[in-house]
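Researcher: Here's a chain I'd like modeled. Treat it as a single chain, no partners, no ligands.
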Amino acid sequence: MTPDEFRAFFGSFPTPVSVVTTVDTDGTPRGFTCSAVTSVSVDPPLLLVCLDRSARSLGPLLSAGAFVVNMLADGAQDVARVFASRSERKFADVRWQPSAAAGGAPVLSDLAVGYAECTVTRSVQAGDHWIVIGRVEGAEVFPRPPVLHQRGVFGAWRPGELTTTTG
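Model: Modeled as a single isolated chain. Structure tokens:
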């Protein structure tokens, strides 16, 4: 399978969009857009995020040993684009609060459907990415529709507008 075929396969279905945040050793906030987030375990509460081994946030995240997964709400598409870029000013126009449970990592509660504050329990290199497993130390959810991404396009999930089938 070629990399393009692999991307086409995973791009063919919608995924939630998150911004994963952490802080550098000097307290500078760091973050990246991430669609590779999934639950691992309920007991203990674990989730994982995947990031490219060349990502500038990888070193700070592993050094801090903590991160926040901010699941973005509809309307935060521009923020997702900024955090997907290599900009040094990702936090310039974003209001955030430091997480008490995740070492001061930025919580983007104004832009999120919810967030999970995590401490790193394990990290594993896998191909061109790192898998980072975090124990969820705290979380909060908000009554907003999430933003989804499919084939390069953002959209909101609105359950009342979906066609469902039974059987």
